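Notes taken during the Thursday session

The instructor put the following on the board and asked us to keep it in front of us for the whole hour. The protein is Calcium-activated potassium channel subunit alpha-1. We were told not to look anything up and to reason only from what is written here. First, the residues (1169 in total):
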Amino acid sequence: MDALIIPVTMEVPCDSRGQRMWWAFLASSMVTFFGGLFIILLWRTLKYLWTVCCHCGVKNKEAQKINGGGDTQADGACKPTDEKEENVAAEVGWMTSVKDWAGVMISAQTLTGRVLVVLVFALSIGALVIYFIDSSNPIESCQNFYKDFTLQIDMAFNVFFLLYFGLRFIAANDKLWFWLEVNSVVDFFTVPPVFVSVYLNRSWLGLRFLRALRLIQFSEILQFLNILKTSNSIKLVNLCSIFISTWLTAAGFIHLVENSGDPWENFQNNQPLTYWECVYLLMVTMSTVGYGDVYAKTTLGRLFMVFFILGGLAMFASYVPEIIELIGNRKKYGGSYSAVSGRKHIVVCGHITLESVSNFLKDFLHKDRDDVNVEIVFLHNISPNLELEALFKRHFTQVEFYQGSVLNPHDLARVKIESADACLILANKYCADPDAEDASNIMRVISIKNYHPKIRIITQMLQYHNKAHLLNIPSWNWKEGDDAICLAELKLGFIAQSCLAPGLSTMLANLFSMRSFIKIEEDTWQKYYLEGVANEMYTEYLSSAFVGLSFPAVCELVFAKLKLLMIAIEYKSEKRESSILINPGNHVKIQEGTLGFFIASDAKEVKRAFFYCKACHDDITDPKRIKKCGCKRLFPVEDEQPSTLSPKKKQRNGGMRNSPNSSPKLMRHDPLLIPGNEQIDNMDANVKKYDSTGMFHWCPAKDIEKVILTRSEAAMTVLSGHVVVCIFGDVKSALIGLRNLVMPLRASNFHYHELKHIVFVGSLEYLRREWETLHNFPKVSILPGTPLSRADLRAVNINLCDMCVILSANQNNIDDASLQDKECILASLNIKSMQFDDSIGVLQANSQGFTPPGMDRSSPDNSPVHGLLRQPSITTGANIPIITELVNDSNVQFLDQDDDDDPDTELYLTQPFACGTAFAVSVLDSLMSATYFNDNILTLIRTLVTGGATPELEALIAEENALRGGYSTPQTLANRDRCRVAQLALYDGPFADLGDGGCYGDLFCKALKTYNMLCFGIYRLRDAHLSTPSQCTKRYVITNPPYEFELVPTDLIFCLMQFDHNAGQSRASLSHSSHSSYSSSKKSSSVHSIPSTANRPNRTKTRDSREKQNATRMNRMGQEKKWFTDEPDNAYPRNIQIKPMSTHMANQINQYKSTSSLIPPIREVEDEC
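Then, after some discussion, the predicted structure tokens were revealed:
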């Protein structure tokens, strides 16, 4: 049978017989492959024979040397001369250099090598595409090289492949294995046929499909380009590339043999199949489906299918499921964040749960913040559950979630941490091991700072002592906005302030939390409480109209006219150092561009302080009409944002009076109230009474055995006006950090006699572990026992305490959330159910000539301004002031059995929280977003609740883990001159006329003008609004009442009180003496043991000495009175007369005192400072 005639073009002269030339193309490849293989094998054989001959010649030469014929040269042809050795060495060196050069050229470790490898792969894919195009033509055709564009491109590609093949051959160490590599075989069967095509003016599709095998290197190329980085992605690309390359290569072979036919059948049994039909045939064959619509007819095709189905089926059955599994296991949240132009974003990581995220978003995206143009990116290594995922979807316009870890730099790059405005790290407040949780967050900070040192980080810390580790990070800089919100420090600080001003913890927690206004029409206590809850803390620059005025004057004007409450300013010293001053005195004048701290219900209201113009707004009575006027302003307009402060302006020391670098003249208040250096001169400069910073009272370290009281000793002790701390813990419990509770109660802006004695009731084993941080504080005692024992509680006179604090160190060791607070709840209910006969304690004290403080009506400590009149008797535990720490917010329902709070009610709406008798650490979550929007808020809060902790003090504690005593210098004593929070009673004293139906605004102005006291809230009896009398003594908090708010006589007023310089002089000899003689003054006797024969030193006191002390006390009373009033001495009699009160009002008078006079127990007298 005649050969098959292939179609020819008229331009190209072909063989007139139509003879096929496929064998010429195939022969070129076969000759190249086998010829090269033969040459390599021949070279290796000759090299082996040469090596054997040389080895033989060396042995003969050594034998001749042994036989004495060392001077005779052997006749062996393999004996090299010195000249030949030099030539061989030179030749070897040249070949090595060329080989090294070729290796560098193709190595992916160099830029040139990577470019060359990528280029070869790209050209291989290009050659494969040309094959796909040519596959639509006949297998063999006559084409003119000079007119066929695809043939010219293919020729250029193959010339490049030939050069690259030469480089690979030179760089190969083993030429034989190189010759048998897959890439080499591909070059053998694709490159030579192209040159034959040019020579014969013919084109044979042939084995060009082998270029598809280059796809196997696809994963390597992507790794060179740093695109593939994870093992799963590399494995997925490997599987896909091997599967696809095998599939396409096998389809090319079927396409060749089916379109050509069998050679022994003279190519008569061919069938026309396109390449893509062959691809389809191979797929149905591998999957064992085999529809039968397309099948192989040639013997070669069928034989190939027999073997291919064995390997193809195995590959299909193993590769495809693994590919699907890898694709299915890809992280749903594994993408990358795409930054939006003109919109900032923050990264939130750490403890990401439904509770923590919902609380954070509720406060961060609150409507009172106006338009929050910030996108929140959450990064966590665990995918969210369905509830959390639904929460993200509800906030999809402002929230995105990505799965990953901040410890992985790749994940940090995914969330664009380098362009983020800040990174917030949430802590797990309920973890069993707080130190481990803090260590995890510190590692997150280290990882983030290592990736981008200038990123601003706000992190939550659980334990105060772990904050010191952040100082070890070189790029940690609080001046640039980095903040650590220590939950233990703030939680215990809030509770400590509640010991001084009950209810303050609730007020401060509501101020930095964003709450929506809830309007109630009924005249109930919730109405007034919720009106105050709607207030938040904001900052705004003051108008130039206030420049030159004193702080009290501006504060009064802002409150009366603008209906705003300003409590602090950011003051710039002469050195341009910014500091926060809380209620400074008349000496501080408002400067241009002063930043004010305001309490208001909306950020828009605070704008009035910036827009106020005396010329335009002086006669306006409605503050809502105060808008921006057209008057020329000296203050720059670009600083109008109320909540956005530059982190670089941040000053964390809480005010200039707290800063050691501040100007001394700003440390003091009105000079008329300060008796020069008399206070300093009266003190012994060689005695250490305060810590080295001057911020806290200090005493030499005491052994714990000296402060331990047995139950019998405590029962014989007259304790009154003290603080009882009931603590649950054992030797295995995590440390709470009681130092943070004691430090605010030992702040140096209290005089020594004003310090409340602190009595810890709890496990001695636990308190021993805490004692190392407490042994430098005066007036601290320990009663080993349990807070559930009524005998222990009665021994410490809990009915006479100013505050009972209930804490637990075992709360996080219980899995059931509802049982985490069981100990605290049981202790609280136990105390409230106790009954007392107060006459016993009073009789015991009077029999020895002592009167507990608060019961001596003539004591100046009980003056209406200096302190509150203490209730003479408490007969039921329900009237004892208690604050209970809770972990689970829902457990607050168990504290008060007489309230009607729903279990699902939010914590801030419950009665115990509103009354200040319960505090949960969850309220501190709002500080994260508050600190981000205004980094000075945290500084202000810490200054108010910690008693004056500064970065310098934190660095000192990080070094020594204890306070260091310091000598009294003018600089350290000046640090005492700072405000403190107190409560002012209205039932008597200079404000008594306003207490019965007066306006809160009038009280505000009078207290500010007369005493420099800044009022900011009311602590009112719960049932004060009722017309009928009520025996309930519970109070609730009213934050920032309006000017016209009506007062009642039983109200207690929250105020920022200035430091009283004169009060300390009358007690200098008592509180700062060496205590060589024991004073029995009734005024200062809050802790005094009933003497016995064995333990009462100086028991014989003459009547003359007592009368002398009483006379001295009466003189000091007159001196102390002068600080509180500007009126003449005869305006108030020395023995303050208390106006008659009804029995009902006496029962309603609060039991708390803002200050108390204390003397340590006898065993502590010699050791006190």
